[in-house]
């Protein structure tokens, strides 16, 4: 009898149990497989894995390897990233370093927004790697940490993976938080006059002084431990004051404000030299209505412009690449594709006032790439150097596609 390779799925297993074992007995999968090997009636059945991703035969008709020949999308990661493993450096992210550099080079061609925020993003990863981080309270708790500089609309201008002492950011001597802010500003070549916003992970009084010297406006929340000699009321006493109360101090071109909301909030800013207040609406549990409370102007500006990095994270999480791999670098690669798509969409909305949502924009990009790939020109006559007809999305993007002088002539 000829050998046969059959996939033992639920239907086949049900039939085997009833034919070999009897209809009234129940067996485990391991017992059924053992009976299959011992039984003479089904000795020609060979058990193979459930998915072809675990059982690829060598392609005998070509010199291609299994990874190059397969069309299974689950094996796609093994064919994408080509890095010479004989040139390993001390950088733990050497495999994807060129990828992040390429993204930053493209993002740096876009003018910096007036309001930018510095925060951290997480790339989900549950495997083993020396750079994997755990951050309590984040939507993604396990993974790689990415320092990011983003506009209020969610466009990321600069990103840098955190790899400990090998992080490619300048060391300022002011601590990790200030070094991240100043390092991202230097790498993105942020011009003076841009307004920075960051949370209490980065904010120190020395950072605000350094931002003032470099011509940047900045505003950030502060931890109580960073207020060394500020003559404020004790925190336990201040928390008992009515909601909306504030106290402030103006010192050395810095405005330090403490405000009582649901909890005590402390903000330091060099954007304002005088304390001003606005109104904000807060929910009153006792009256079950919205009440108006006083709110410092610097805190209102902080709330309006701080969420750019989190907004980018939210957009990336909407339509992730669902191809999975055991490679440690694959989450970084797939996240980079999603981040580039979100950045393109944010730029499309801000520059062209685009009305397409993210899903429609991704479909348009995918259709355009498919049309431009591997299609021969349909028109007759002289052979064109272009692969395909130019799509409408490219023709009408108002990007000024002028010819470039390459220094050579064509006949």
From TrEMBL:
Residues 87-345 form the PiggyBac transposable element-derived protein domain. Residues 53-76 are annotated as: Disordered. It holds the Pfam family DDE_Tnp_1_7. It comes from the Eukaryota. This is Chimeric ERCC6-PGBD3 protein Chimeric CSB-PGBD3 protein. It comes from Larimichthys crocea. PANTHER family: DDE_TNP_1_7 DOMAIN-CONTAINING PROTEIN, PHORBOL-ESTER_DAG-TYPE DOMAIN-CONTAINING PROTEIN. GO terms for molecular function: sequence-specific DNA binding.
């Amino acid at each position: 009898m000829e050998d046969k390779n059959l996939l033992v799925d639920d239907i086949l297993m049900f039939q085997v149990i009833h034919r070999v074992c009897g209809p009234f007995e129940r067996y485990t999968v391991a017992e059924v497989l053992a009976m299959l090997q011992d039984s003479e009636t089904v000795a020609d059945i060979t058990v193979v894995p459930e998915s072809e991703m675990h059982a690829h035969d060598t392609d005998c008709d070509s010199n291609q390897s299994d990874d190059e020949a397969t069309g299974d999308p689950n094996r796609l990661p093994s064919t994408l990233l080509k890095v010479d493993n004989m040139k390993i450096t001390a950088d733990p992210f050497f495999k994807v370093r060129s990828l992040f550099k390429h993204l930053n080079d493209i993002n740096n061609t876009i003018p910096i927004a007036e309001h930018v925020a510095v925060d951290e993003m997480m790339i989900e990863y549950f495997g083993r790697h020396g750079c994997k981080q755990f951050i309590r309270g984040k939507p993604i708790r396990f993974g790689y940490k990415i320092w990011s500089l983003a506009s209020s609309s969610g466009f990321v201008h600069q990103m840098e993976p955190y790899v400990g002492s090998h992080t490619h950011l300048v060391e300022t001597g002011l601590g990790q938080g200030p070094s991240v802010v100043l390092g991202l500003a230097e790498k993105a070549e942020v011009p003076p006059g841009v307004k920075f916003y960051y949370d209490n992970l980065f904010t120190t009084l020395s950072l605000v002084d350094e931002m003032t010297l470099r011509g940047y406006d900045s505003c950030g929340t502060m931890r109580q431990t960073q207020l060394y000699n500020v003559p404020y009321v004790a925190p336990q006493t201040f928390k008992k004051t009515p909601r909306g109360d504030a106290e402030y101090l103006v010192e050395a071109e810095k405005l330090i404000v403490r405000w009582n909301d649901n909890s005590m909030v402390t903000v330091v800013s060099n954007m304002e030299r005088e304390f001003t207040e606005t109104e904000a609406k807060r929910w009153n549990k006792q009256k079950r209505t919205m009440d108006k409370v006083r709110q410092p102007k610097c805190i209102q500006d902080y709330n309006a412009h701080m969420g750019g990095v989190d907004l980018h994270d939210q957009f990336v999480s909407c339509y992730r690449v669902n191809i999975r791999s055991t490679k440690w670098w694959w989450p970084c690669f797939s996240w980079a594709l999603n981040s580039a798509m979100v950045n393109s969409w944010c730029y499309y909305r801000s520059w062209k006032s685009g009305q397409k949502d993210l899903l429609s924009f991704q479909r348009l990009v995918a259709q355009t790439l498919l049309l431009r790939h591997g299609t021969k020109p349909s028109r007759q006559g002289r052979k064109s150097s272009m692969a395909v007809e130019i799509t409408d999305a490219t023709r009408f993007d108002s990007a000024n596609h002028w010819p470039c002088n390459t220094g050579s002539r064509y006949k």
